[in-house]
Amino acid sequence: MEEVDNIILHSLRSIGCEIEDDVQSLKQFSTEVIVACAVRCLKTILQDVDLPNYLPQAMSAKFRMGTTLASHLQDLGYRGDLGYQTFLYSNEADIRKIFMFLVDKLPKEAVEATEETLGSGVLLQRSISGMLARQLSSPWVPPYLKQRGVTWRGKPPMWQREGTCCMHHYHAVYIDVPEGSADLTKKIPKAIKSYQQNSLPFITCQPLHHGDTVPSVLEANTMDVTAQHEWEAEWNSAGLASRLTQQEYRERKRQRIHKKITDQLRQDRQRSGAGAESGLSNDLQQVIASISGRGSSQAKTKGSRFTHTEKLLFAKDDDKAMSEVQVQAPAGKTEEEKQQEREDEVGRLREELNSLSAGLEKLELEVRKFAASKQQMDEEIANQARSNTDKEEGYKVKKRTLDLLPDAENNIAKLQTVVDSSAQRLVTLASQWEKHRGPLIEDYRNLKDMASKTESEAQRKLEEIKEFRRKLKLVQEEARGKDELTKQLGSEFERMTKDVNRSAYTKRIMEIVANIKKQKMEIDKVLVDTRSVQKEINQLSGKLDRQFTVTDELIFRDAKKDESVKKSYRCLAALHENCELLIKTVEETGVIMREIRELEDQIETEGSKKVLANLEKITADYQQMKKENDTLLKKKKAKS
Predict the structure, then answer these.
(1) In this structure, are 96 and 26 located in the same domain?
(2) Residues 357-415: pLDDT tens digits?
(3) Same domain assignment for residues 26 and 106
(4) Measured in Å, how far apart are the chain's first and last C-alpha atoms?
(5) Residue 1, helix vs strand vs coil
(6) Within a domain: residue 308?
(7) Taking the model in full, what pTM does it have?
(8) Do both 78 and 8 map to the same domain?
(9) Most Cβ neighbours (<10 Å): which of 76, 117, 464, 473?
(10) How many helices (H) and strands (E) does the chain have?
């Protein structure tokens, strides 16, 4: 058993189980170590087992964990007697069987074939690599959610939790990101491209604080994604209904926004009463011009009716003013008088423009009212037309009825004849339909059956295709995993020293094989001796039976004539009976000795099960469970 325990310990250490160096046998395993090693083996085999790596403190949790481990082992195919008591109150033989089963079920790539001597340095390196692998495979958990391993650093006035030194509030600022550089079909002006290449700072330098970079990037990305989603929703709802291209729809939307802003600015100017001031008028014209020029630098928008009217009026007024200035220039007026005249003329023209704009707005309002009233009247006319049509149909029916009233009896008879003929025609059509309906229904049923069979066949083939694709994905993932494992093992092989001595392992294996052969030879020799002794016993028994039969016949033949021979015959029968009794006694003695040896083996087995220690442990666990139950009852009473 020592060699078996060494193999099991070596396999457990190779998959990352934390076993101390001084442990040389499974007899030295405690309950916590047994549970931890079993959980580690199950996680290596199944990959999806969600069990803690340590034994919990509460007794109910211990029992649940033992039952869960037993159920997982039974699912894997373990056939022995198994339960929570196997792990909590274990004995050496059962634990050896369980770990032999688990080691046999381990994946071949999980058991590392190490070639160096198992020293403390190698074990330390293995434990470090196992811990790093577990930490890399486990998900990241913030420090404030960790149940264990959270420490406080610093002194009481200024201490902080582990991992919280780099935490700060989420604060985002505006960042300028180059747009259109990824689209090769869109031409970027040289000035903008030069600014982006030479003057625009990196996004890591734009925020005032370095900690605001990531929130700013996330905020900008979120705004872009949100704008894209809003545009897609608007285009799918209103854009497609307009039957325009995206560019035309954007252009129309831009014109509507421009018109709304222009109208709002004009209304604000009129409400403020400062429209006559030249500076405000010029500023307003500049704002409107800047709004109108916000679109594409190459494409020109159509603009609103107010914009065209204003341009035409200002163009005419400017032409008149220029002509008057040219006519009046030779009169010899001074520059101040000319400037005053121009300002008066501009003021008068602006007042004229305001009055014309107000009149135009009133006319537009009246046009809208007339259009709305026209649409309402069109709807009323359509409603009246529909009602007139219905009334005409009713009038025709009533007129026909009144025309039939003078000769009512004849008309009723004619109607009855028409109704009868119609009923007969319906019966004839129904019979004809039934004649056509039968084959059609049969064809329909046949086609439906064929369609269902075809659909089921197609569904089956589709399921097979899905299954093949799933298997293909699994094979691909397995191949990728094996490729990565091959690369990792290749790199580890390159890093390993090539002068490792394998003679120790070879010698150990040869010694185990020699011991097994020797034990097999001894067993074969005992079996041969047993067979020879049994054969000899059978021969002697047969010889004895034959000798007794011959002697019995000879003595019985002479016993009829001689009295002394009769006494000899009786003594022979008694001797034979005593010999049979003696043989039977010897056989029963052998059976009893064998039962004694079996009982001694059972006593030794039961002694190795640590019954007394387990009984004490069960008693202690029982007391602990009673305390936990009392505590829970007290808490329940306190809450109620």
Answers:
(1) yes
(2) 888 888 888 888 888 888 889 889 989 998 998 888 888 888 877 777 777 778 788 88
(3) yes
(4) 57
(5) coil
(6) yes
(7) 0.31
(8) yes
(9) 76
(10) 16, 2
